[in-house]
Amino acid sequence: MTEKCSKYEAYSMFASEKDFFDHLQECEDCKKEFEKELRLSALIQDSAPTYKAMVNTKKLMCKIACVLVLFTSFGVFTGFEVKQHERFDNFVKANTETSVISQDGLPVDDYGFFDYN
Ligand SMILES: [Zn+2]
After folding, report:
1. CA distances (Å), origin 114, targets 7, 93, 98, 100, 117
2. Residue 58 to residue 65: CA distance in whole angstroms
3. Is residue 49 part of a domain?
4. What pLDDT does residue 53 have?
5. Domain membership of residue 77 as a residue range
């Protein structure tokens, strides 16, 4: 059993390009390592568009979620406001109609009290 060459990293990082490729010509282990790196590089380049599309989809989903939250909160608050107005109108109507003072034919304010004006 032969020992595997351990010079690949040193050659790929510190040797000149000519020395590196010269070593690849004579060393089968480093040549296999280099081919693995080439395949990995190609794989990364092939998957880049998919990754970018996923990132863009996430950004789009985030924008949609923000818009939905804004519309939902706007609807809740405006609905709450309308409800408050309805409740106040009903309150005024009930007070002016059921007030003892108004039943006697006297003018009343929004709260059913005698209106001095
Ligand atoms: Zn080698």
Report:
1. 102, 15, 13, 10, 9
2. 10
3. yes
4. 94
5. 8-103
Query: Does 30 fall in a domain?
Result: yes
- How far is ligand 1, taken at its centre, from the CA of residue 39, in Å? 18
How many structural domains are present in the chain? 1
| Exposure class string for 1-38: b at 16+ Cβ within 10 A, else e | eeeebeebeebbeeeeeeebeebbeebeebbebbeeee
Residue where the block lists tokens 């309308």: 82
77 C-alpha vs ligand 1 centroid, how far in Å?
Answer: 71
Whole-prediction pTM value? Answer: 0.48
**Distance between CA atoms of residues 52 and 65, nearest Å:** 20
Give per-residue pLDDT as tens, 47-65. Answer: 999 999 999 999 999 999 9
Q: What are phi and psi of 21, to 5 degrees?
A: -70, -30
Question: How close is the Cα of 107 to the center of ligand 1, in Å?
Answer: 105
Residue 44 banded pLDDT, cuts 50, 70, 90: very high
Ligand 1 centroid to Cα of residue 29, in Å, is: 6
